[in-house]
Amino acid sequence: MNATPRLRSAFPSTPSSGGRGVNQNANSGDSGGNGGAGGQQSSLLPGVPQEQKATMSPLSAPRVPVTLIDAPSQRMYTLAVYGLLSAWKLYDWWTLVEAETQSALLFVKWIFIDFVFLFGVPMLRIPWLEWSNATTSLAYVSHALATGMLMFRIPIPIEGWALLLAKTLYDKEMSISENSVSPARILHNASHIMGKQIINILPEGSVVMNPENLPLCLGNGHSTVTIPLQFNQTRPQHIQLLRIDLDTNANETVTLSSKEMKHSLQLEDGVLVINYVAKKTGLYRLHKVIDRTKLEVQRRMSDTLVVACPKGSIQSSVPNKCLGDLSNLTMQIQGTPPLHVVYSRFADEKRSIHRFQSIQPENFESPLLGGSASGTLILMGNQDVSWARASQINVPLNESMIHSGRWVYSIDEIRDASGNIVTYTYEADDGEHRHPKDAHLEQELTVHARPVVQLDGCDSRKPLLVASGKTTALPVMYTLPGRTPDDTSHTLNWKFSPLHTLTKGGDHGYEIAEEEFSARTAYHTPVIRDSGLYTLTGVKSQYCDGEVKEPASCLLVNPPEPQLSITSENINDKCAGMPIGLLVDLDLIGTPPFVVRYDVTTRTGTSSESLNVPGLRHQLQLKPQNAGHFKYRFTSVDDSVYKAHSLAGNGLTLEQDVKPPASASLRIPPETIDACIEEPVEMKVDLFGEKPFILEYELVHNGKRNRFKIPNIDTDIYKIQTDPLVNGGEYSLALTSIQDKSGCKIFLTSDVKFTVRRQRPKVSFGKIDGKRKTTVVEGQQVKLPLRLTGRPPWTVSYRCLNDSLVNLIIKTARSTNDHIDVSQQGVYEIMDISDDQCPGTVETKASTFEIDWVSRPRIKLADTAVLLPDDHKWLKREVCEGDIDAVEVHLIGTSPYHVKYQVRHKPETGSASIINKEFEAALGLATISMETSKAGKYEYKFSELSDALYDHDSKRFTPLVVEQIVNRKPSAHFVKPGQSYKYCKAELAGNEIIPIRLEGMPPFSLEVDIKHQSSSRPLTVKVANIESNRYDFIIPQPSLNLGMQHVSVRKVRDSRGCQQKTEYGAPHVQVQVYDVPTIHPTEARVDYCVGERIAYTLSGAAPFEISYSFEGVKRKAKSSATTFRRIAEKPGNFTITGVSDKASECKAITKISKIIHEMPSVRISKGRLVEVDIHEGGEAEILFEFWGTPPFEFTYTRSTNSRKGQKSQVLETRREVSHEYRMTIQSSQEGTYEVVAIKDKFCSFSTQKAETGGGQKLLQF
């Protein structure tokens, strides 16, 4: 048992039949040798251990003992089993390829076999095949994926090569004799049909970028913009855009990804829109578009600009301006020129709109100057797009500000050259380019009025007179239009020249002083003292320089002090000869007018008197009323400049003893005396002299004088009282004479005039709408008109006759057509009247006024005949769930009406719910829709009512309650919804029974729909008088047809008259009526040629079993698809005798015979591949050449032209007949034309089967 020597890097040696235990013992033997006595190393091979079986581990030994089958053999057998399983799997896959189908059952089968094999091999513990669990799991997953691709026929790159290899090695098909034959051998390399012609139509599909020329911009919160690409009659596969950068003029090619092209919108037939999301500005142009046929799509040349969104701002140097200044504003507009700006100006409480057109830099050139952004904007080879860059342009605004106040300039809209419009509003909007108006978009200026200053009351003709050494205010009048004067500060400038320096013409002389004064308010004026000429030179408010108007100069003068000198003489009485007063002449020096003050001293004391003297001379008459010694001393004098100037010196004091004569005067009141008719008049008289007095007076009226004499008056004051004056008019009371103790009779001139009214004041009620009665809303205040005569104010007393508890009410009227405010209904009566001093009378016929109230609104049912009263509510007839019902109510009052009501719903189960509703009614009749959407009891409570005059008053309104019961709709359900019933059509005997469960109040009537899958309208079966809640529905036999029928309940009605229709998609049952399977040849012809495939179409449920005979031999074949095909490898009679399917288990007997002949030949385009390009609408010539026996009937196909990575699809198949050996066909349609079948007088030949995608049928020959 010598082992072959191996390098350390070599594979381990093949385990011997002794197993692993032998190797372990050998290793132990070696170690034992190394550890022997003396440390010598033995050169001999180790001996065979004696206890090999005892040292072998049972957990690591192979399941199959190596003594029975050695390890290499076990590995070989395992590999052989794996190879057989793989071959079996590939065979199953090949059967699927042949049948052109897939199988989930085979997939489950093989993943189970792979699981058993891959996880079972490590359990055998075969050396070198004991891989880990992770390796096992990875291998299983890989096998499962490969199995899925094979069994489900998922296209993989190796499948085509595998099929090619399989066809090369095993090119076999099932023949009529149920043998595998090689079609290539039969068809002789397809030499019977040769040639192919390809017609290409230049692409008529087109694409246009931004077809509606939408303006696009980035910025102002828009980071992206969508560019629509509209495709007409094509679907793109590859799209390239050219973008030229606006800043650098550099171009780049933008290729749309497949993800971007998936976001498409199908607008209409043939029109497809793909929205490209652009994130950069630039000029975009369609560069290259390839459709799915690998042809370039026609591009409509147009450029799309994506520019920066226009924006702007307004700047100002100062916010405060003066009237007449220029606005001096600058609008900074940024965008693609030329720009259009709309701005608004708010001034003088008015808003105006202004526009700037064609804002652009100097010498600016742009293709957009024409006003259109459509079409090609730049020429080929020219990439200069600097004209589309955003430019910042400063637009000055210099307007004369002719109105003071608040001026606001605001940018409202900016539009750039490409049509982008940015509109600014004061509130945010949902629009794409509408933005809130920020502070930088508007500039507010305050225009201040210029101040005006001038002198008031002082000019060249009227100097300012000031006492020497005194100060005075410079009479400056400051005005500022549009501003409260006392709320204005300003600075005042003037120049001053002393009086002695003025020129002869009165102007400023050689000495001039410039002065300035800061005033806090308009009334704050400077104080001046020195005499001289003052001239205003300027004024300035806080913001503006002002204007100085004339008079602007004022001369301040110090006049001389006032002086007084007097002379006097006595005044004697003519009757008694005694002095009764002094006559004093006053001579004054100063500036008139004067005020002379003097003291009068008597035995009772000293009193001060004053006298106003307008000029320089005056004569003063001093005649005291009482007798005695009088002393007069002049103390001071005032003129217009000096005040309280003291008088000193002799000759300013006068003394005299006085005894005055008797006198009397009436005390005349300051206001006009107006006496009442039939009332006396009283007047007081002041008497002067020695008592007793005799007074005479007279009363004059209408030219008549009545004289009266009153003796022995012992008082200084006497009251004259006349008799009641019964005649109205003007009276005169005059004092004629008075006599005192001295006996001298003195003539008097004191008199007074007064007027006596001609009638008493009267009062009456006026009329409202022509009568003294009115109707108003309850609680409304009414103004009862009064008609008054006399003199205001009047005092009117009235009362309400309907309210006995209310006392008289006093009303003070101040006009002849005054009114009384009342708010209660009833009859009001006027009781008394008086004016400001005279009592009056009340007109009896017009002393009362009646007030009535409008009735409050009411609600009631319009027609109670169909309603039943029940205590405090009305019962309405029961209805069904979902029915339309309504109730009419009458509204009594003044329209429009506002009604609120509650709808309380109490379902059959569950808690109640309340819904509050309201409505407006313009007429007195309203219709209320009843709630019938859910079953249960409904209560309608009309709780609030108001009309045009009255609001709702819960204390005076009685709710109206209507109650109605809504019955639930009946329902019908299948006991076993979704169940399917199936049987053969030929074996129909008896009827199908479908149990139905009914809910509601029996008896029921039922309508059932039976809808065939191929029919758009169902067949309705009606059933009446169903007395129970369960019904066994029997489908009438004439109602069933072949195929799938959906049986559903259409409508059910119960005894209450309620019905319910079943909605679409409700539970139903299916009835599958199977016909016996049939087999039909795909072609009606009987004659076939050798090498052709005889194909049949099967109807029924796969798989099928076909019985046929060929050359007298009966055979059977199975088909898992709905087609059955066999290749004819030799001539003979082929007859189908029967077919059966698995699903219905129905079998059909048939007899379909085919005769197989030899094959003809055909060539197209001389047997070569010819490619022809034509334009849309053009035609190409296709030449066919035939070999065989005419007439020839051939079939050719038009397929899509092959593209790289795409499979050609058959678009149409045509048949033609030729009685000659050559035939030419004109075609204007694009595609690949090739003959797929040829038939002469006896046989036919087919080269291929054409498959078309998209659900088209498989063509076979």
TrEMBL record:
Transmembrane segments: none annotated. GO terms for biological process: nuclear pore organization; protein import into nucleus. Residues 558-660, 878-967 form the Nucleoporin POM152 immunoglobulin-like domain. Residues 206-306 form the Nucleoporin POM152 first Ig-like domain. Residues 1077-1155 form the Nucleoporin POM152 ninth Ig-like domain. It holds the Pfam family Ig-like_Pom152_1. Residues 70-155 form the Nucleoporin POM152 N-terminal transmembrane domain. This is Nucleoporin Pom152.
